[in-house]
What does this fold into?
Amino acid sequence: MDPVLTDPTAVQTAWFCLIAFMFAVYFVLEGFDFGVEMNLGVLGRGDSERRGTMLSTIGPIWDGNQVWLITAGASLFAAFPEWYATLFSGFYIPLLVILLSLILRVCAFKWRDKLEGRRWRTGWDVVHTITSLLPSFLWGVAFSNIVAGVAIDENKWVTTSVLGLLTPFGLLGGLVFVMLFWTHGSLYLVLRTGDPLRADARALAGRTIWPTTVLGAVYLIWAQLTVSHTALTWIPLAVAALALIAVIAGNRARRDRLAFLASAIAIAAAGVQLFAGLFPFVMPAANDAAHSLTVANASSSPHTLTVMLIAACVLLPCVIAYTIWAYWVFRHPVTGDGSDAPESLLARARRGYRQAFEQE
It folds into this structure.
C-alpha cells in the first residue's frame, strides 16, 4: 500500500482538505441558489411570473447543490467524530435552525405552484427569501466562531452560549456571507435570464458588489490578523480581493461569465482562507489551548480514514462529473412566456430550455 495512505498524519490532513473542499463547493453552488431567492423580494416585487422565472433558473439544480452539504456533514461525522460531537454541543441551536430552514425551503420549492392564487405564491416566495437569508447569515456566524475559537471544557463540550456566538466578528461574518451570496445570485440571474430581468439583475449586482467588497475585505483581513495560524493564508485573501475587483470590472464591461466566475472564485478563496487558517486545529478553544481539537486528536482511526479515502477517490470524481454534466444540460437561459397556468419549477425550467433549443 502507498506509504501516504498508511501515514496517520497524511490521511488526517487529506480528510481535512477534502471536507474544506466540500464546504467550499457547497458555498459556491448553494450560494447563488440563496442569492436568487434573496432577490425574489427585490427584482420580482409584485410580479409573480417574474419570480417564477427566477426560481426556474435554479429549479433543476438546487437539490443537487444541497447534496454537497450532506456529503460534507457525513464526511465530518465519519472522519472527525470528536469535531462533529463538540461542534453540535455548542452550535446545536444555530445548526437546527439551518436544518429547519432548509426543510421549509424544500416545501417552498415543491408547493409554490400547486395553486394559482397570488397570495399563495407570494407567501411561499416570502418563505424562499427567509430560508435563504437565515441559513446564509447563520453559516457565516458559525464558521466565524469555529475559526475564532469558542470556550471548550475538559470534556470537549462547548460552554459558550448561543448569544455568546453573536460576537462582532461572528456578526460580520454572517453579514459578509449574505452579501457574497446575494451578489453571486444576482450574477447568476444575469447569465440565466433575458432582458429586462437580466438588465435589472446586472444593475443590482453593480450596487451590491461595493458593500460586499468593503465588508469582505474587513472580514478577511480581520480573520488573517487575529485568528489565522499561518501567513500562507494571505495568498487566498489576495485571490479573493482580486476576484471581487474582477467582479466589478466584469459586471461593468458586461462580461457576465467573467463576473460570475470571479464571484465563485472569491467565495471559494474565502473558504480556503478560513479553513487553511484554522489548520491544524478543527476547533480552537478560546479559554484553554489544551482543550482545543486538532486534526490529530479529533479524527477517526487511521484505518478508517484510509478506507474512506480510497472510496472518496473513486466516488468523488463521479459526483463532480455528474454535477458538471447537469450544469451543461441546463445551461440555457430561462425566460417566462407570461402564462398563468400553474406548473412546477422543473416543468417551467424545461419549457424555458426547450424554447432556447428551438431558437438555436
Remarks:
- The chain has a mean pLDDT of 87.
- The chain has twelve helices and two strands.
